[in-house]
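Recap quiz, item 2
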Amino acid sequence: MQQTEVILVDRDVPDPLLIERAASLIRAGQVVVFPTETVYGLGGDAMQPHALERIFAAKGRPYSDPLIVHIAHLDALALLVTSLPEQARRLAQAFWPGPLTLILPASVRVPKLVTAGLDTVAIRMPRHPVALALIRASGSPLAAPSANRFMHVSPTTAQHALADLNGRVPLILDSGPCEVGVESTVLDLCSPHPTILRPGGVSLEALQRVLPSVSYHAKENIGAEAQEQKAQTAPGQLLTHYAPNVPTFLFEGPIVAVQRAILAEIQRRQAQNERVGVLIADEDIAVFAQSGVHIYSLGSERMPEQLATHLFAGLRTLEEAGVQCILCRSFPTQGLGAAVHDRLQKAAGGKIITVG
Ligand code: TXA
Ligand code: MG
């Protein structure tokens, strides 16, 4: 156990002295929790194997899951990749800095702990001013997974990160809630066709405007066991990657049928004295207002950015309210809705109820 210090850092004008305190820890091979526009990251020097070991240890994450390398300038690519495909150049120009991670051919200098032994490396340039300042001051790219314990929901506030990592990291930089709220989109540029491995903060539609050949195959709604088996062929694609500590059920289908099914499930569980939480949209509040459950609304169903921003806070808030199950409605999958849907599927870990 070590003392975890949380310090407030202004998002837009980060105090250079505070950034330098964090950067000196990074240079010394330590790890630091820092904000990005997507979720909080648990960062360490990507080129120091000892720092990488600390990241895996603090999270309780297996070495088989590769890390994303965060850069502040395109010059850093020379150290990290063997070549930069023309497609990568165009995407970087359009979306960096921002919530897009590109899978590129790894240079031999990238530590094996970063790539999990693959010959590719995941790279992104975040747009959060504190993240960029920290990378620059550290003088090295930062490897950073989301700053949660392995298998738990990603943190979108410093308090979420503290709840998971208190006593396991020396320092957390707190710049308030993350703007995007879901992790970066992971795009594989090393397969024959550019493929989204994880939907995230840059939508499929936006990527296709720059590179029409980008494709995304949403996970099928198959059982938990089959998913886990499939997951073993794709690192990091574990089904229950984002699960809250409470059993979570995702209801899919036409919204009126979904609302009706959730109400019936609430009654059934309340009859057994269960405390129930529901994760819904503003448009559903009236339907559940009288049902005696904990309600968390992610915002308007017509605003996927809003849903994404509040998703992880919603799961954690219900968890902390002490509910015994979380019942979620599904949301439209346009734009960032695809990422929201993917995270809800993972939170449910195969417990998906299709109605109507
Ligand atoms: O928004 C984000 O991406 C956040 C912030 C902190 O930047 N980071 C994040 O890292 O979500 P993490 O470690 O929780 O997720 C990284 C994902 C995993 O699904 C991992 O399998 C995938 O990226 N990944 C990393 N390297 C890869 C590679 N070489 N090939 C395929 N997938 C890779
Ligand atoms: Mg993660």
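Residues 304-320 form the longest helix (17 residues).
The pocket of magnesium ion (ligand 2) is lined by residues 145-146, 154 (CB under 6 Å).
End of item.
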